[in-house]
TrEMBL record:
<dbReference type="GO" id="GO:0007179">
    <property type="term" value="P:transforming growth factor beta receptor signaling pathway"/>
</dbReference>
<dbReference type="Pfam" id="PF17205">
    <property type="entry name" value="PSI_integrin"/>
</dbReference>
<dbReference type="GO" id="GO:0005178">
    <property type="term" value="F:integrin binding"/>
</dbReference>
<dbReference type="GO" id="GO:0007229">
    <property type="term" value="P:integrin-mediated signaling pathway"/>
</dbReference>
<keyword id="KW-0325">Glycoprotein</keyword>
<keyword id="KW-0732">Signal</keyword>
<dbReference type="InterPro" id="IPR016201">
    <property type="entry name" value="PSI"/>
</dbReference>
<dbReference type="GO" id="GO:0005925">
    <property type="term" value="C:focal adhesion"/>
</dbReference>
<keyword id="KW-0106">Calcium</keyword>
<keyword id="KW-1003">Cell membrane</keyword>
<keyword id="KW-0401">Integrin</keyword>
<keyword id="KW-1133">Transmembrane helix</keyword>
<keyword id="KW-0460">Magnesium</keyword>
<keyword id="KW-0479">Metal-binding</keyword>
<dbReference type="GO" id="GO:0008305">
    <property type="term" value="C:integrin complex"/>
</dbReference>
<keyword id="KW-0472">Membrane</keyword>
<dbReference type="InterPro" id="IPR015812">
    <property type="entry name" value="Integrin_bsu"/>
</dbReference>
Length: 127
């Protein structure tokens, strides 16, 4: 286990000791992030120069050990922010039909890591 950006991570190697991030031979940040949720990409321009192991796709901890500075590590996480969450109402409780609230929340903002999925079951909707 190791800590990065206030989250705890575990090393995701296979039983044979193979690194899942490097086994995909990603050539772009997007390809790397799609391999596995634990993979990160080093965008540092001079990363890997003069080394035989030059993969920019690896676990965050390994990228740091190999000289990638934290500010160049691309490791997006998915997040959801509820922007409007008014209480449910019945047909007769609003001044107009437009005032009736039948779903919660009414407005959200999503930021998804490539490959992540979110379902409507994330919210408790009684519809």
């Amino acid at each position: 286990w190791w800590k990065f950006r206030n989250r705890w991570w575990f090393d995701t190697t296979s039983p044979l000791g193979l690194n899942v991030c490097m086994s995909g031979s990603a050539t772009s940040c997007e390809e790397c992030l799609l391999i596995h949720p634990s993979c990160a990409w080093c965008a540092q321009e001079d990363f890997g120069r003069g080394r035989t192991l030059t993969s920019r796709c690896d676990f965050v901890q390994n990228l740091h050990k190999r000289g990638c500075q934290s500010r160049f590590v691309e490791y997006p996480t998915s997040s959801i922010t509820v922007q409007q969450n008014m209480p449910l109402s019945s047909k007769g409780s609003g001044l107009t039909q437009q005032d009736v609230v039948q779903i919660r929340p009414q407005r959200i903002s999503l930021s998804l890591r490539p490959g992540d999925k979110m379902s409507n079951s994330t919210f408790d909707n009684p519809i």
